[in-house]
Each structure stands twice: as C-alpha cells, then as structure tokens.
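Annotated sample (chain length 389).
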Amino acid sequence: MARILIGWELGSGSGHTLKLIDIAAELRRRGHEPILAVQQTGAMPADYPLWQAPLWPALITTRRRNATASPSTYGDILVALGLMEPGAVSGLLRGWEAIFAAVRPDAVIAEFAPALMLAARGRAPLLAIGSGFGLPPATLPAFPSLTGAGAVQDERRALAHLNRELAVAGLPAIGALPAIFHADRTLVQAFRELDPYRPWRPAGDYASPHMTEGAAIADGRGEEVFVYLNGQRPGLEGLLGGLAGCGLPVRLHDPLIAEADIAILERAGLTFERQRVPFARIAERSRMIIGYGGLGLASAALCAGVPQMIFPFDIEKRMTAAALEEAGLGLRVELAGMDRAAIAALLIKAFADDALAARAIAAAPGFRARAAVPCAQATADAVDELLAA
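Output written by the structure step:
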C-alpha cells in the first residue's frame, strides 16, 4: 500500500471535487491510502484524511487588489492569482512543505496545482492531471497567447520574481515560466479538440475527461433544451429572458439560483430542476444543451452526440466554446450587447439546425472510444506505473 497525496489549488465548481473523489475511491480500491489536500474542503467525504491546501492570494476574498486587464496568457493568469506578490509563492511552498512533512507521501497527484508541482519536485513521483487549459506543456519557452492579444504581464519579470521566491524556499530556479508544470507524468484529462495547447502537446499525454456518468448516443429526436447555469454571470438576465421568450421547451438547473427567481422562471413557462439531473435523462430528451462551457458537461455532450450552445464567461470557457465551434459541434455566443429578442432568435435557429445535430451524432462514437478507460482508472494506472518505476 502506498500513501498518495492528492492536491488541488485552483479552479472552482463541482468538476474538480467529483473527479478527485472518484480518483481517491479508485486508489483506495487498489489498496492505496489517498490523502486529500484541496482548495474547497466542504464537499470532500468524511472518511478520507483531509487537509486545507495553501491558498493563492486571489482566492482570499478579504484581500483587496487592483483590477488588471483581461488575461491573454497563462502567465497573465498566474500574476492575477498573486504570483508577483512578495512572499506569496514562498508562503505557498512553505504550506506544502508542512503537509509533506506530516503526510510523507509515496507519490503526489497535482490537479490544477502549480505551487504543489513546484514543491513536490524531487520529493516523490509526481503525476500532473487536469484539463488542457490547466496544464500548459512544461517544455514551452514561454506561454503563448490564448486570445490573439499580447500578454498583459511581462513574463520575464514574473519568472525573475518566481525564481527569487524559489530561492527563499530553498528550491532550484527554473528556466522558463511554463516549467512550473514539469512532472514525472502528465495526464491531460480532456479530448484533444478541447485542449487550447494541442499544437504544442505530445499526443500521448491525453486521457479521458472526467464524466460522472454516460449516456447512449442521441437519436436526434430530443424535444427539449437543457440549460445548466451556475449562479450570477454577466448577461444572465438577457439569457434568461431569451430562454423564456423563445417558445421552446426549456428545462433548467442552477444550484445557486434563489427560490424567488425560480418562481419567476416557472411562471414564464420554463421547467426548473431543483436537483441534479442524471445525464442519461438529459441526453435522452434534449435536442440541445446550453451552458457556460464547463469541461465535464461539454465532454459528456460530445460523447452523447448532443449539440451545444456555449455562453462563456472566462478565458478557459471561451477556448472550449471556440473549439466546439471550430469542430462544427457547437455554437459560441457572447452575451455582451445581445438583448432578449436576439438571444431567443438565436436559440430558435440553433434548435432547428438539422445539420448541426447530424454532425454531433456522427462524431459521438469517436469521442466515446477515447473515453473507454474512465478518468479515475487511467489516473490510478499512471500512479501505479510511477510507483513501480
């Protein structure tokens, strides 16, 4: 039996927690001892050893920091998270050092955890997992732009500051900022089509995305629009107005919506699901799935052959939406400047697009074949290989 530290620092939403719970369960099933050190502890099962992961400055909401321009590179994102704040990275590394001293892991799994990856180097076999967006290739000389615009931050200054922080922590310098993501093994748990770094990524780094459940391939006869939202986002009022005014059968789930708003939506003719809907039911009765571009739902829809319409609100989800549109399997829509009538018209047009539905159904078998080995199994296999090396 090996002791496996599973760490998670960045990102939000249930996708991270559900995936890590599944991985921990698979590791335990194989006789290992998983220990969780995570950003959000509340959703983790009580029967696993649990630590609070060190927090990046931007995740501490009581701290005030100046707003910056929208990021274009991963370097911009790291700076926005607090990379350049004096003592921030060395503090994160000291936090991980304390966890290492207490846990003494035989191997480490890092999920969207750049500070953990720096701290773990040379201590124990390191497996990096995550989406394509969250795991830039470590061999890049610099982070490429993901938007077409120039970098907001000077990456050379960021690298120099990071190396000073590494020296404070007693760790060796790195030669380029993407080298933060160096690991003994990397598993990009995403379809290659949805990886913004696919032009630079070795093909062998891919594994199945995490999906909580599967579904049969759609037959194209679904009659509903399924909408998954996750709280207040820019343009939400217009989107809800468009959904209410499009005249289509709409079923919606939003775990963060207020009860008073649910009543308004139901009076407008929408069906609101208060509990999470099994994906098999979504795929069976939906002609189209609408969401913000979360990787789990987008991947499940690809495997089920259901077209998607994405209303992205951050750089990662914009990349997912753009990839779906490029593949001809979904539509990317920016809500800014769109009124309810325009959104309703767009929904009606997409719902009636038989060619879009046919392309999604035709592509589904290929995605399903690449998801044949579940995410948790592939992760545990990689851990066992590292331990045996």
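Annotation: The CA atoms of residues 135 and 181 lie 7 Å apart.
Annotation: The domain at 3-210+373-388 is CATH 3.40.50.2000 (Rossmann fold).
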